[in-house]
Design a protein that fits this description.
Layout (H helix, E strand, L loop, with lengths): L4 H7 L12 H19 L6 H8 L3 H7 L3 H16 L11 H8 L6 H18 L3 H28 L8 H13 L14 H19 L7
Helix pairs in contact: 2-3, 2-5, 5-8, 6-10, 7-8, 8-9, 9-10
């Protein structure tokens, strides 16, 4: 029996080596999330990889291994941001289509998270004119994958017989244009909707959309 502190310490195996590092996928996500505030504060052009490394508490070697260029980091941020816009992919369920689409378009999003996603949208739009790589990243990592995910979901609903046959890619584009049209200011002096008005508008868009693509019962 060990009855003194010195003997107990001698009997306890020592841990050797560096602490276990995070998996690369987890570290990439952590860095992208932490760097987002820096991009929002400084803008895309003024943000440097040195500043990102300092903000995220990683070495430049690690940062460049995970994100070889600032564009790669911004692309990862856009891909992450996409999830705040559309809750896809999702498993099929028996929810009414209007409620399923309300979930997909995240109508229940909290005001704080909504302000964060709007701030990122404004950043991307403002800097896209000056930096072509941002526009390309928005298309490849944001709009195009989101539209395809929604088109895939709509296609499955057609196969289940709850929606009539209609080009799913076209339907997805139409619905996204309708719902997202009020998220940003369209012209100087335009006011953003309140949360309540935004939700009501989105539900009206979903209702109009579903009436247009609803499966029509055959005539008797």
């Amino acid at each position: 029996m060990i009855d003194n502190y010195g003997d107990a310490m001698a009997a306890t195996p020592r841990l050797r080596g560096r602490p276990k590092q995070r998996p690369d996928a987890e570290e990439r996500q952590r860095i992208a999330a932490a760097a987002c505030d820096l991009f929002l504060d400084l803008g895309y052009g003024a943000t440097t990889m040195d500043a990102v490394a300092a903000r995220c508490g990683v070495s430049k070697k690690t940062l460049y291994r995970l994100f070889p260029a600032k564009t790669d980091l911004f692309r990862a941020m856009i891909a992450d941001h996409r999830k705040s816009m559309l809750a896809l992919p999702r498993a099929d369920d028996d929810l009414p289509l209007d409620e399923a689409l309300a979930d997909i378009f995240r109508l229940d999003i909290g005001e704080v998270e909504n302000r964060e996603r709007l701030a990122f949208i404004r950043l991307a739009i403002a800097d896209a004119d000056r930096f072509p790589e941002i526009g390309e990243a928005i298309t490849k990592e944001g709009a195009a994958p989101a539209r395809q995910l929604l088109a895939d979901w709509l296609d499955r609903q057609q196969q289940r017989g709850t929606l009539r046959s209609f080009p799913p890619g076209t339907a997805a584009r139409m619905l996204m244009d309708m719902v997202f049209s009020v998220l940003v200011k369209r012209f100087p002096g335009d006011d953003l909707m309140t949360r309540e008005d935004r939700i009501a508008h989105a539900r009206q868009c979903i209702d109009v959309f579903l009436r247009g693509v609803a499966e029509v019962a055959p005539l008797a």
